[in-house]
Amino acid sequence: MENSEGEKTGESKPAPQMQQLCRFFSQGRHCNFGKKCRFLHIRDDAKAHENKTVRTPSQSDVAPSHSEVPGGRTNISRAAPAAGRRPCRYFISGHCTMEDRCRFWHPPQFPQVDDQPVPGDYARPVQRMRPVPHPNILHEVKLCDLTEDVTRRLRDTEIKQLEKRFPKDKLIIQERSDGMVTYYRVTVVATDPDWPFDLKEIDIMVSFPDNYPQEIFTLDIPLDQDLPPVMARHVQQASCEWLQAKHATNQLLGKVELLFRPFLRWLDRTLERLFTEGARQLKKDIDIEKAGLQFIPYQELQATVCEKSEEENASNERKVEKTEGERTLEGPGCDDRHQQQEEEEEEEEEEEETSHLVENIKISGPHRGTEVKLLGLRLGENTATVVAQRITVCLQCNRCKITADLTLTGRTPCTAECEKCSASINAVFRPSMLHQYSDVLGYLDINNAAPADLVLQDCELSVGCLSCSQECPIQNISYGQTKEFNCEHCHNKLSILAESTRFQYIQPRANQTGQSACAVHYKSIRDPAVQKGKPLPGKGTCKHYKQSHRWLRFPCCGRTYPCDMCHDEDQDHPMELATRMICGYCAKEQVNC
User: Any residues with CB less than 8 A from the CB of 335 and at least 6 apart, and which?
Assistant: First the structure.
């Protein structure tokens, strides 16, 4: 019995060594069987440490992968965990968030002692070395270490990398006539797979100065390519701004850097945005040319003014020299006559200046009275101009506060009487031209009344077409709704949209001779009844609803009333539900929710 028991105990001892590991628990995952699992629940690194402490590893002691177990069964054992698994790169770098649950090997952290004895069969783990940069390639240098030799090496490195980066069919090297400057013309192709434009490449021309990278390289966009000049100028301006900002940042950080490769990466990322902005500018210039206008940048105006001032100064100096020479030839007896001539010339110049002032006043004369402005004006792609031929204005009497509609035609005075107090109301409408850069419909000269609203639905407008330069009439325009129609001549699609109307009284200029008359005239003119930012009359209430602080704009007639009953009392057509409203506190027109 003892022998049998001894045999059983002897047979039971090597069982834990030959038993397989639970692959779920050893990989750091959860085992559903828990303690009832027939496999070992130990970590791979723990078992490896246990095997090292029990016996010294050797080739003879290592059990084969397929071993015989008493009983006739074969057991497939796993190899050593440290040798079979890869080390955890996060643990080696300093920290692993999985800790003991990580399925990669976490090597023990021993002190780095090179003199310790190492077993014959134990392979020391290979330490990862940091990549050593190429000693001959420099990309950035501190300003304190920058010398002429280093600057020359940096410049040569940038040029060599440029020549290697671009093939011969996309690189053109040109030299200036004096041979002092070398230009490199390269073709940059967009790498975006979802590129939206037909033009996928752009040519740039760069030149590196002798003190590069202390100074940024020059960049030009050649005009002899398929890219429009407006878009080319926009891309060049944005690129120069980025280079200057990058160079200034490096100066603050105390270093210099090769900027051509970072510039190519930035250009590849932002080329779509630059093309989009340049296309918008190009479309705007085309619309301006079709409208018969010309846009002159401020820089060109300033340059022309400076040139004219220099020419005037030079001509004045010549006149002074000429008069001095004549005086010396004629003698001292002619000084009085020259003084009289100079005084006459000064008087003539003053008269010319006053005539110019009078002309400017005449030009700015239409900007008076009450300005009628369409807010939120949007014209279609082919819509050039809009001119009002006839408008209908809702006026409020200054005496009895009764509102009434008045139809006005361009530059034709109209006289009416108030239905309640019989006060005479005089009004004149002076139309103005609407386009993409002006939303002023015209100017009103009103006496004894104040404008309250513009009935846009009853207005007759004349719309000019960009394609055929012809005009066609249009009516029944509603606030907040896009009016689409076709040109009567070329049948192109035209559209117009206006959100609301604003009346703004323009105070007359005060003259020294007629200050009292202007003051008396201003007393008889009131501000418009509806002004954005100011409350409506009575804050939008009426006799039917005392707590409703708003006016409703009814689409059936395009007029505003405090409520539906006020609409029915004043109009004789069936009412339609209002879709827009005007706030009684700020007079802002918006969609009625």
Answer: 327
Beta strand ranges found along 436-565 (DSSP E): 440-447, 449-454, 460-465, 471-474, 483-486, 493-497, 500-506, 550-553, 560-561
- Angle of helix 229-253 relative to helix 260-290, nearest 10 degrees, comes to 140
The position carrying tokens 């940059």 is 188
Confidence (pTM): 0.38
By CB atoms closer than 10 A (0-12, 13-18, 19+), residue 424 is: exposed
Could you tell me the sign of the dihedral formed by the alpha carbons of 234, 237, 241, 244, in that order?
Answer: positive
| Distance from C-alpha of 582 to C-alpha of 86, rounded to nearest angstrom | 73
Which of residues 58 and 23 earns the better pLDDT score?
23
* Token digits of residue 451: 């404008």
- Region 487-494: what's the mean pLDDT? 89
Q: Angle between the 335-363 and 298-330 helix axes, to the nearest 10 degrees? A: 160
Segment 212-226, tens digit of pLDDT? 888 999 999 998 888
Dig out the tokens for 544 from the structure: 């039917």
Rounded to an integer, what distance in angstroms lies between the CA atom of residue 408 and that of residue 392? Answer: 6
What does the pLDDT read at residue 242?
93
Q: Give the model's confidence band at 338: pLDDT under 50 very low, under 70 low, under 90 confident, else very high.
A: low
The C-alpha atoms of residue 267 and residue 234 are separated, in whole angstroms, by 13
Position with higher pLDDT, 107 vs 272: 272
Q: Per the structure block, which two tokens stand in for 474?
A: 């249009």
262 three-state secondary structure: helix
Q: Which residue in 262, 253, 163, 258 sits closest to 212, CA to CA?
A: 258
Q: Which of 70, 253, 258 is nearest to 160 (CA)?
A: 258
